[in-house]
Amino acid sequence: MESTKTIQIKILNPDFELVETMQKYSDGMNYVSEVVFQNGKVIPAMKLQKMVYSHLRENIGLKSQVSCNIPRQVVGSYKTLLEQIKCKKTKWQKLNYTPSSMTLSYKRDYTITEDSVSITTFSSGRKIYQIQNYDYAKQYFKEPWKFAASKVTKHDDGDYYFHLTVSQEIEEPAIEEASNFMGVDVGINYLAVASTTDKKCKFFAGGEIKNKRNIYSKMRARLQSKGTLSAKRILKHLTGKEQRFMKDVNHCISKSIIKFALQENVSVVGLEDLTNIRDTTNVRKKQRYLHNSWAFRQLQSFIEYKAKQVGILVEYVNPEYTSQTCNRCNHISKNNRKGLRFHCEACGFEMNADLNGARNIEHRTRDFRYSVESQGCLSTIHTDNLS
Q1: Which overall architecture, per CATH, does domain 175-374 show?
Q2: What's this model's pTM, rounded to 2 decimal places?
Q3: Distance between start and end Cα atoms, the chain
């Protein structure tokens, strides 16, 4: 199993050659994007590469490896667009790229040491840039970590960073041999609730964070109502500040969840497959902002990559009725849940609603083991008693 990590390292001496190279890169991205857009559908990456390679090399002047990377990257972006179209979130449109990010292949486009990074520039060949490395990051410059395709990115504050991606192979535990599982329910009232096979649990409260995000929401509404240029600048800064805040929160929670999993000797962490959750749930108007801006997928992805780093498997399970199912008798009813409490109308079992959800996720993750052993497929949920 491959464990991957990205480290942000500040470039101390960006210059015209680096800025020019990123501009040429975005020119190439926008040209390829126009080709895909005019085609009216996604073109396979290899076919697209053959269509645009000569133009990228001869007319824009890009290097060989970059001319191969760009079509793959553009195809990936348009595939994401197609997923959004399927969810009726947007329509077919041309994707535009700014000179704020550039992907580089290791050895062909860049090499790196603890003190500097060597980047192939458009007009000056290889140039060495000094980097501000951190003590915690230096561990990733040694075996067993290996460098992979990475990015140069211009942040909103105007500084340039090298987003170094490293990976290592770690032993993957066989799910058939797993004995202790953990389900994690993510939400708004509790940002996460974790429960193990032996009923150990951990809560991550979200009340204080929800209040802070409500403050952000009110500030945003006030700025949007003004509509002035200064208000728009502040609004952009506020949005970035909130995103950084939530990212930090999600990092801290995911770190604590995996620490808890290690303490309880958990082999497999179960998460709900919440794809398109915003399109399939109804919430009150006052709750809509919190729900639609909720970074649940980011939290899940942080849990997943932190789990992989320590050799813990992650499985995504069907989320249907996890909040309505009694984890004791399996009775399903929308009447079972009333706010923060779960009370089974069939057997009378009562507990915290999010903990009940986490235990149902753990059950389904555990069922996955037996379905793999017996027939190699996911178990299905029965809803005959749904009311």
Answers
A1: 2-Layer Sandwich (3.30)
A2: 0.69
A3: 42
